[in-house]
Write a structure and sequence with these properties.
Blueprint lengths: L1 H5 L10 E5 H18 L2 E5 L9 H5 L4 E4 L2 H11 L2 E5 L5 H7 L5 E4 L2 H18 L3 E5 L38 E3 L8 H19 L4 E3 L13 H15 L2 E4 L3 H4 L3 E12 L3 E5 L3 H4 L2 H4 L17 E6 L8 E7 L8 E5 L19 E5 L6 E5 L3 H6 L3
Parallel strand pairs: 1-15, 2-3, 2-9, 3-4, 4-5, 5-6, 6-7, 7-8, 8-9, 11-12
Antiparallel strand pairs: 1-10, 10-11, 10-14, 12-13, 15-16
Length: 387
Amino acid sequence: MANRFFNFDCSRVPSPCYVVDEVAVEENLKILADVQARSGAKILAALKAFSMWNLAPLTSNYLSGTCASGYNEARLGKEEYGGETHVFSAAYNEADLNKILPLADHLIFNSCSQWQRFRPLVETHQKKHGKPKVGLRINPEHSEGAVPIYDPCAPCSRLGITFEELDPESLEGITGLHMHTLCEQGFAPLQRTVAALEEKFGDLLEQMGWLNLGGGHHITAPDYERDGLIALIQDLRERYDVEVFLEPGEAIAIHTGVLVTEVLDIKYNQMNLAILDTSATCHMPDILEMPYRPEILGAGEPEEKDYTYRLGGMTCLAGDVIGDYSFDDELHPGDRLIFDDMSHYTMVKTTTFNGINLPAIARWNSQTDEIHIVKQFGYEDFKGRLS
């Protein structure tokens, strides 16, 4: 992906701006469609990771539908993407659930108590419309994640039902199980997690009609063992007679987009400091939450190249620091920098803290070099989310 954007003329877009290469997105979708066809699973686009609905027609050409975390995503999936709509929330309220029920093909509960509380409501809808199918999210208590904030199987996790917490008397009306335990990981962690799932919940799985393996599968990575994944899915389908679903998000958008930013000012306080028109806290929050240091095209590690700078955002937050980078040349106000791999999760997490505008969104075709500015944000967008 980086090679595509090395030749991208970033002066053609406003700053800051997310630029997504539709060619790269389609390449990822083709890989996922091949896994879907060969394994017999249905693959759903996880809107929580990438919901650039301008690309919904492209996505729906390859995948079976979307998965959502609540009403807004479910409605976006149904209206723009089509296909199946699966919804999971850590907890529902009745008002939202009433709006979700007409949209959902699969509805997944995070506790037996929520299912029992809302069962009359769901069954009333099922009798009239024949859907949704209802499932429970289970917690196999098998951690593969290296970062605690992204580990749904960490001790005291609120996500998923442990075997101890499972109430056998609450299973009437439940037709499937859902688990989500991975984060941008390969096949081996999934294989180990499925083994843990079967050890704890294998008897229950034999009673079900479907199994959703969630997301976090780095299926489109060059080194992902796709043949192993396909064999695993085929085996689960055959042994348990279940329909299998996957919900990748980052696998659709990984290595497809960048964030273009501009240097606003240069300062010095024990080291060179550059203030950008983008922000870690507003526009790249995983830098602070994960934490991690994003790549910049053409930049190096601190002191690797001639000029080292600490890059920070334009907000009042002292910790709004992106990281330390080195460059071949001095930075000046007006220079453009390109942060790599900024499509998945970054775009959906933006805020307008300090009244800072959201980055524009552009769609680029790396084969034809055509570019389309999809959306620019301003005062009305900031005002509209407040009161």
